[in-house]
Amino acid sequence: MTLVWIIGTTFLISLFALVGITTLHIKHKSLDKILLALVSLSAGALMGGAFLHLLPEAVEGFGADIIVYTLLGFILFFLVEKGFHWRHCHKGKCNIHSFGYMNLIGDSIHNFIDGLIIAVSFVASVPLGIVTTIAIALHEIPQEIGDYGVLVYAGFSRYRALILNFVVALVVVLGGIVGYFASSFVGQFTMVLLPLAAGGFIYIAASDLIPEIRSIESLKHSVITFIVFLIGIGLMWAVKFI
User: Fold this and answer.
1) Is residue 20 part of a domain?
2) What DSSP line would sit under 108-157, residue for residue?
3) What pLDDT sits at residue 156?
4) How far is it, in rounded angstroms, from Cα 230 to Cα 128?
5) Cα dist. 148→2, 19, 86, 128, 169 in Å?
6) 218/37 Cα distance (integer angstroms)
7) Residue of 55, 106, 153, 224 with fewest CB within 10 Å of its CB?
8) Which domain holds residue 152?
């Protein structure tokens, strides 16, 4: 029954990735107006997730060594971007922005870790697993909205962005299954992934998303996107108290 709980709850969480379906019938001009806001929300959520959740959790396992692992994560994502010859460019000058692919990779790692955490919680007790699932679900709602916006802004069609975001979200189910069958040593494995994922999140937000926000020339829109960025961080901070 524990495995059933894990698979069921992780699958429910993956369904949050379909939140982007609400935008499928919005006109392109209207969608373009909110894309940068979604990118700002995602940038804030990524930074908040890295500094307020992943890194503090990893400190318990690595202490000061967490800095090295986080730096390795940052370097790893940089090498992946260069290794696949994904070059950053501005909208309209290429088919797909590199940060769209990078965001998918980072989100996959993050979802896998979420699955591991849920599995470990359910192995300990069903009530603890349910509480953990609720906390992660609340974390995923703003994250998935922002991720979908990033994919669309990166150049993916809305339908393709929706499908890719859902496929990546299903990785949480894989993480849950792996966590269940490897519960005896998954704790240490999770500790290794946490700072690596944090480094990747920081890379994506600081190297790709924030420069996109910074390129806005309008003072009004700059203020709005900055506030949305802070909201993304604030949402991740609020989850800590749930």
Assistant:
1) no
2) HHHHHHHHHHHHHHHHH-HHHHHHHHHHHHHHHHHHHHHHHHHHHHHT--
3) 82
4) 30
5) 31, 8, 20, 30, 11
6) 14
7) 224
8) 35-239
